[in-house]
Request: fold
Amino acid sequence: MKKILLTICTVLLMSSSAFAAEEPFTDKFILWTPHRDELIDEYTIKHYGMICREITPQAVVVHWTAFGTLESVWKYFYAEEMPDDEGRLNVASQFIVDRDGTTWRLMPETNFARHIIGYNHCAIGIENVGGYDGREDLTEAQLAANVRLIKYLHAKYPTIKYVFGHYQQDAARASGLFIEHVPDYYAIKTDPGKIFMSGLREQLEEDGLIFYDP
Ligand SMILES: [Zn+2]
Reply:
């Protein structure tokens, strides 16, 4: 079974190799040594029952950071180990979008990143700077940047079918994508807010992407 899952995880990547569209982001990669791969192996075996260093993107998950600036969030994600988790894999996302819409890519977007319980093996994560104290304060520029980025990703990876906010993690189980092997491993989330997800749905649903009720 493990072997089969690993095959599914990596083999579909070949379909994207010929893609050439203008990238709506700047690369600013986080630290990636063989140690991060080891931590990813440990995490994905424990939580997904397979090794999954590369993903076949089937969903895009949208977040807000609830802290910091573009630079400070990037610095936090830069470390391979989570400071308060005794050397386990740090959280990260493939993209961060600043309040003015500036978008950074933190790693090749099919690399594994820990940003949402249950879906990291198949989801690209976009963090948006904002949401301090749970306020729905993401900007119009961030909405436009997310629309642009998701359109780009959808064109590059036709395997992407779903777009959901972190707070929609339960509704998204209807996709059948959810996997979590550790019982009761769960965190309640509110990001990136209903207003932002409504805005994305309005502008992206006609592209054939599946959304959940905000
Ligand atoms: Zn989140």
